[in-house]
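Predict structure. Chain length: 157.
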Amino acid sequence: MNWGRVAVIALILSAAGVGAGVWYAQTYAFYEELDPATVDLTAVVDGQQVPLSAGDIRAIDAGSAPHRWRVCATLDEPLPEGAELFEGATPTYGPGWFDCFDADQIGHDLEAGVATAYLGRSEIQPDIDRILAVYPDGRVFGWHQVNDKTPERGVMD
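Prediction complete.
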């Protein structure tokens, strides 16, 4: 028996097992689909949180990190006047199985002006804002994004 081969095979199998475990953890293990009735959709209007009425809600979250929240929905009414725009919105990728949320398409639509980004909630957790991309037809997609800490924004550590 060649112990060198046994060691190499053991290393390869261990690496494959660890890789599969990491993939599973990042894609499935920590995510859970949220009950639509528990999803808190709000917009910042004149500095105040205003609840939004929406249907067709699909949402996911994970307690392991604050940036894993995603939502796809349809607004029942347009956003209220004075809803705060959000500059620099960058949709973050979710797991592939959450197929209603396409970060690439949302990002392109924001750049092209097809959708508009609004602040859904400031400091949902320290250093994290909730962002909503709203389309003229009422579709809305939300995610959490690390916020900009600048004096102009009024947020500094």
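Summary: The chain has two domains: 1-30, 33-146.
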